[in-house]
Amino acid sequence: MHTWLFFCLTISLMPGSFGQTIAPAHSSRMVTVPALVEEKSGQIAYDLSATDFSIKDGGIEQHVQLEDNANPPPLSLLLVIQTGGKGAPQLGKIARLNDLLDSILTGPRDQVAILTFDSRLSVIQGFSTDSDAISHSLASIAPGNTGAALFDALHRAITLFDKTALENRRVILLISGEHDHGSTASDAASLIRDVSSDNISVYSLTFAAPKKALLNKLWSINPLALTASAMQKNAAEALAQLTGGDFSRFDTERSFEDRTTEMANHIHNRYYLAFQPLNPEPGFHSLQVDVHRSKTNVVSARSGYWFSTADNSGSSGAAR
Q1: Which contiguous run of DSSP H or E holds residue 298?
Q2: Which CATH architecture has domain 25-70+271-313?
Q3: Which of 57, 213, 283, 292 lies 20 to 30 Å (CA to CA) from residue 96?
Q4: Does residue 252 or residue 22 have the better pLDDT?
């Protein structure tokens, strides 16, 4: 068994991580849960209220709040782009990414940062609202070497959000293959912990050939071990499911443009739910999000988060 999978399995057996009922404790943490809801027709469902939703944290029903979509906070968008390995030949297909950002960045305070990776990581643009600087940085992207250190890149990406306002919506747009090749500073287990310890949503666009979809929702039996297994099969898809983002594949310039436009629509039409955990025990918590209104369906939602002891003492962690 891989070392990281054993680590995940071990943590998954920690008391309270998967629905064990404990006495409620006080916590300063608010966990944000983005959720995309559609009608049976496939159209996005609008006008839902907090009472239309149910969130269970490890099987325990939570008190749901709903953020006001009429006055959304600024967006901090981090582009994480694979330039190495099989990513190098794909760069021509994403050439219009700069133009497509207009559909994602809708507010004057929305900001963009850019991180590229092969076997090395390069932050070519810190968070900025300067469209000219962003355009220049995107135009400078060049093919990399044979590596694709996906896990290292995402770990570095998470730390970049430390320089953004806590109230901002934090989104990673990952353009990459499905697997890690060559990370040396991080592994799947630590990435699961770190990405689920913050209110970050990962939207993944991959250029790999279609494969079988993940067989299970990540909140099913033994969620952390299942997430670890899913990371091995398709890291990009597993991270999107875990954080409440989207996962799509592209094979042409046109399909990349279509999928990016679709993701932009989903980013701005997600419901942003929030709750203060009633069972704030350290470790991985699985989430199950449902909607009560008939003829509607939760298409995607955050499926888990990591709670640390620091969260009970008022640090931000996955809270804000």
Answers
A1: strand 296-301
A2: Sandwich (2.60)
A3: 213
A4: 252
